[in-house]
Predict the structure.
Amino acid sequence: MDRLRAQELTLAYDRRVVAEHLDVRITDGSFTVIVGPNACGKSTLLKALARVLKPRAGAVYLDGQAIASYPSKHVAKQLGMLPQSPIVPGGIVVEELVARGRFAHQKLLRQWSPDDEAAVAEAMRLTEVADLADRFVDELSGGQRQRVWLAMALAQQTPILLLDEPTTFLDLSHQFEVLDLCAELHEEGRTIVAVLHDLNHACRYATELIVMRAGKVLAQGPPSTVMTAELVGDVFSMPCRVIDDPETGTPMVVPTDRSRRRPRSLVKQA
């Protein structure tokens, strides 16, 4: 049985329903990437999986038990979450923020330990923010902050890591560095679930894709079988070719020339 799954989910914000009757299974040991157009429910699904958003109906299950039934610290030891737009606490420095990832490991009679210290140092090293340790987080660039938040999630040392657009604000080089790091963590045995916008990044790194549209899962499986020109056209309304990436052999989406994509009426009006 897969450790993390969702069954018959209805997800909503106040009166706005985002998804209904949503079933998802996260394959153990996979690097699963969720893709789809804006406002299709990707981030909402990830929040539900992380127990950040309470489903209006249905349930998320962790190890066969409803995730809502577990104590918060138990969930925090199993699931690490990098949210899409985290709020930076005022007056906190980088090392303090990363150290908050160790909260679930604290005990009444042991508030801090050498293991905590080592976990924080390793997370900062992996995300290349060790030299920012004494800087205030709210003074950092968007890309630096993103790496600091990722370091906090890594410091939790959870077997399952949920990442909502982890490459946001990062330049191209740092995008690949973060995704390479995720791939290494996956190879070491962690289950990774990430929301990504870039289809080619998704195909290059994922072992499994979940493709969503309008709150529904349209396809799930390996990129080699899921990512087709027909699917891209159906989900994103974008004509394209899907070819083999010359570096990795994974599917690569190549949009058709703009003169063939753009309606003539729009060209005349421009």
About this structure: The first strand starts at residue 4 and ends at 13. The domain at 4-86+158-269 is CATH 3.40.50.300 (Rossmann fold).
